[in-house]
Amino acid sequence: MAEKLLENFLSCHVCSETFRDPVTLSCSHSFYSSCLQKFWEQTKNKNCPICKRRSSKDGTGVNFTLKELADSFAGRQKPESSERMKETKVEVVCSKHPEETRMFCEDEQRAVCPVCEFSLHQTHKVVPVEQAVRDLKEQLRSDLKSLQDKRDKYKQVEDTYNEMSQHVKKQLLSTETQIRAEFNKLHQFLKEEEESRLAALREEEEQKGKTLSREMKRIQQQMSSLSDSISAVEEELQKQQVSFLSSYKDTQSRARAQSSLSDPQLVSGALIDVAKHLGNLSFRVWEKMKDKVHFSPVILDPNTASGWLYLSDDLTSVRNGDTEQKLPDNPERNTNYTHVLGSEGFSSGKHSWEVEVGDHPHWNVGLAKESVDRKGERYVSPEYGIWCLWHRNGKYTNGAGKTVTVQKSLQRIRVQLDYDRGKVSFYNSEDMTHICTYRDTFTEKLLPYFGVGQSAGSTTTDIKVSV
Length: 467
Hints:
Residues 12-52 form the RING-type domain. By secondary structure, this protein is α+β, with helices and mostly antiparallel strands. The chain folds into three domains: 1-74, Herpes Virus-1; 186-291; 309-466, SPRY domain (Jelly Rolls). Helices cover 37% and strands 18% of the residues. The protein has nine helices and 18 strands. The chain has helices at 2-9, 33-43, 64-74, 82-90, 129-185, 191-237, 241-259, 274-278, 281-284; strands spanning 22-24, 30-32, 103-105, 110-112, 126-128, 309-311, 317-320, 339-341, 350-356, 362-369, 386-392, 395-398, 403-404, 412-418, 423-428, 433-439, 446-452, 462-466. Strand 12 (395-398) and strand 13 (403-404) form a beta hairpin. Helix 5 (129-185) packs antiparallel against helix 6 (191-237), helix 5 runs parallel beside helix 7 and helix 6 (191-237) runs antiparallel to helix 7. The termini are far apart.
């Protein structure tokens, strides 16, 4: 019964022959292309021979799906290679009709027999298996590419963590050396204090090391999972067609689920807080040796410094070097510009400090929001969260781009912050002459901000913070 229905469906309504080059009109009736053309020539119109509706199609487009079914039904199989014949023998969709061309139902996502199951799929989208496999493999290859890209991003983060891990060890060694140098100046009776500081440093190094190890382990686990998914996808792509169609869905679902994972992010605060150990170290010991110490109101944070900037051992001076240091790209670091931030910020009250700029030809001095963009493009203006005085080649400019007039070249600048009143002011420290003032509303912590350009031809190369 099913075969009789299929025979009627695959026969031309004009000549009753099984289709070879069927065309389907907009009314869904199908005919031999040549029969339809002869009928139209005789009737002088383009109406359907069955329902008489005028067709919006010209009748020249072959319905390849119907042609495949008709060829299969009539036994008009295309010559196949020995490899394809081997596949056909191995991958049997229907034991009753193993010789029939296999079809794929996109609605039910499975291979079907065009004879036994034809009546069950008349309203479904059915395509040749070869076409389905080609399309689905293309989708899976796209998923594979997404997985590989995701793995590459995780690899980049892992590489950065490796750099940070190595840098932490270097920080440990250099900071330990500087701490020892400081304590040597304080003689033997300060030995207990010295060992206390070293212990704190080692404890933080251990904590940061554990943090990095934990994050790296997590990253490696994610990479391992992604690699497993990639292997599964690659293995899936090697399967034979029917086997592939029966199992690709789970592999694709897993691949897409992992592709949708958020990109890995570096954690902040993974480096040793060098400023905590070295900043104002001598002042903290000042209670015991007041006459041998110096206090700086601002300590520079080396974890925020551009690779081109070199900080002094006591973290109170900065200069632009001739070569870029290889530093990890941790979240706190300024990478696009030669800037560095203070280690401690201000959320209230009044604060002031002086900066010795000498005759340096290119510098920025002021304050920046803690959330200031440290990786992308930005300008030294309040719009970007920076309130500063800018000097370049003898010209002084504020953040609004306006030139500031001074009586003589500035050597030493006082920066004053009144956080609660929203004021940042700059003065010439020599005679306290007012230079410029910003008025704004501050809503987050502000950090001392320094930018240092190249200093070729200048006698003073460091920008130094002082009382």
